Amino acid sequence: MAVELHIDLKNYRIPARKFFSRDTRTVAKSLLGAYLRHETPVGVLGGMIVETEAYMFSEPGCHAFNGMTNRNRVMFGHPAHAYTYFTYGAHWMLNIVTEKEGRGCCVLLRALEPIEGIEIMRGLRQKAKKDVDLANGPGKLTQALMIGKGQYGLDVLDSRLIVLVPERSFRRRIVDGYGGIVTTTRIGISVAEDLQYRFYLANHPCVSVHRKTV
DNA sequence: GAGACGATTTTCT
DNA sequence: GAAAATCGTCTCG
Predict the structure, then answer these.
(1) Which nucleotide shows the minimum CA-to-C1' distance to residue A55?
(2) Which nt has its C1' nearest the CA of A75?
(3) Has residue A109 got a pLDDT over 60?
(4) How far apart are CA A214 and CA A212, in angstroms?
């Protein structure tokens, strides 16, 4: 059942950096219902985050597990910075660094409900048959929002790429309206497959894969 | 609607 | 040189 919730930016604000320095799984869950907004030369692109995954430095699914490399170095910096990387020869992924400086944890943003700049997104994602398909996957999300190498290391509290969080009561309406939060194992990895580090809004149409809790 | 598979290039071993 | 935090297309039912 579709839930008609008017997402108004008046209900959102930029959080303190402390929001991102908490436990990565807590941050991943808390980001459901948050708003990702990218000011690009062709217009503002934005939407509500509906699906995330946590990556902890202490488990092999995480790029930081084997220490710092040139690719992942931003993960070891301050929280709330963007970690973008390229994979499968075609796709960019967008993560946000979490926990205390030096730990190497992040949250992968996997899916978004398009809200601002939908016309532009349609041009950027011509393969999408419906608007629901504009950003319902990590690779699609970055393509729809023009996120890639140029956004590596940006501070999502103070840059052209920002994350806003809903007020407490509004967030409750979002989460309840979509039937709560589902926790599952992560998608597309071949290690640490038992960890339930994926979170999404239960009945939201823009979630990439609706998988029952394992 | 679900499962199989190829594309393509960066990164690290 | 292999693997990769994916996507779109194809096939079958």
Answers:
(1) C5
(2) C5
(3) yes
(4) 6
**CA distances to A5, A26, A153 from A77, in Å:** 36, 19, 9
Model pLDDT for residues A34-55, shown as the tens digit of each residue: 999 999 999 999 999 999 999 9
Half-sphere exposure of A162 (CA within 13 A, CB side): 15
| CATH class name, domain A9-201 | alpha beta
Strand C, nucleotides covered by protein (CB < 7 Å):
3-9
User: Residues near chain B (nucleic strand), Cβ < 7 A?
Assistant: A 66, 69-72, 85-90
Distance CA A205, CA A202 (A): 9
Question: Where are chain A's structural domains?
Answer: 9-201
Query: Which single residue is written with the structure tokens 């993560």?
Result: A95
Tokens 């999404």 -> residue: A200
Quickly list DSSP for A115-165.
Answer: EE-HHHHHHH-TT-SSGGGSSSSHHHHHHHTT-SGGGTT-BTTSSSEEEEE
